[in-house]
Automatic annotation (TrEMBL):
The organism's place on the tree of life at top rank: Eukaryota
Gene3D superfamilies xref list: 3.40.50.2020
Cofactor: Mg(2+)
Name of protein: Hypoxanthine phosphoribosyltransferase
Length: 226
């Protein structure tokens, strides 16, 4: 378990594994904001594929948690797009199904990255009061799990308030030797140990306004370094 290339598949083997040699798509095959064109290497996961995979995750969540009231905890800032699209899909499924999920959406703002490196600490920037999660069915929604430290730290803070249930959905899981082996309950894609941006994932607050998930190049890293 754990380690590059040795990640066990997520819950029920259900995630898309992107191999180390996946080259992505050439930038000029897609529409991208002009201001980022020289900063990116490739389109790694096109927006449409993210949407289709999110629809399937919503269906899995609906199957498991249908007929419950859940509190969706969106981890800001990177999780906002995935969370919005996931909630929208769950709502649509719930409308057209016997099972009905009622949802409430809360937010927590965390930061653990500077440039393309983890800072080893999880900061609860909004100082959110997690006590409101006491007794609730909580679904944490994250953009990416890399080392697993941020998620473990958040989970241990929430567990103090005795929620009824906690599940975690992450759009991406990174194969990295720094992983502590943590696996979310629902995951969209397992990706190699690369720094990705777009679809709300940032590099020092840049690239959130990019629809596709892309790989940043050295020019981009240098241009937006802090
Ligand atoms: N991109 C953006 N944020 C991140 C990443 C990444 O690849 N890994 C962990 N946080
Ligand atoms: Mg995140």
């Amino acid at each position: 378990m754990g380690g590059a290339g040795a990640l066990e598949p997520c819950a029920e083997n259900k995630l898309v594994v992107i191999p180390d040699d996946w080259p992505g798509y050439k930038l000029d095959l897609f529409v991208l904001p002009q201001h980022y064109c020289e900063d990116l290497k490739c389109v790694y996961i096109p927006h449409g594929v993210i949407m289709d995979r999110t629809e399937r995750l919503a269906k899995n969540i609906m199957n498991d948690l249908g007929d419950n009231h859940i509190t969706v905890l969106c981890v800001l800032k990177g999780g906002y797009k995935f969370c919005a699209d996931l909630v929208e899909n769950i709502k649509n499924l719930s409308r057209n199904s016997e099972k009905c999920i009622s949802m409430r959406v809360e937010f927590v703002r965390l930061r653990s990255y500077r440039n393309d490196q983890s800072t080893n600490e999880m900061q609860n920037l909004g100082g959110e009061d997690l006590s409101k999660l006491a007794g609730r069915n909580v679904l944490i929604v994250e953009d990416i799990i890399s080392t697993g430290r941020t998620m473990k730290s958040l989970l241990s803070q929430i567990e103090k308030y005795n929620p009824k249930m906690i599940k975690v959905a992450s759009l991406l899981v990174k194969r990295t030797p720094l992983s502590d082996g943590y696996k979310p309950d629902y995951a969209g894609f397992e990706i190699p140990n690369l720094f990705v941006v777009g679809y709300a994932l940032d590099y020092n607050e840049h690239f959130r306004d990019l629809n596709h998930i892309c790989i940043i190049n050295e020019i981009g890293k240098e241009k937006y370094k802090v």
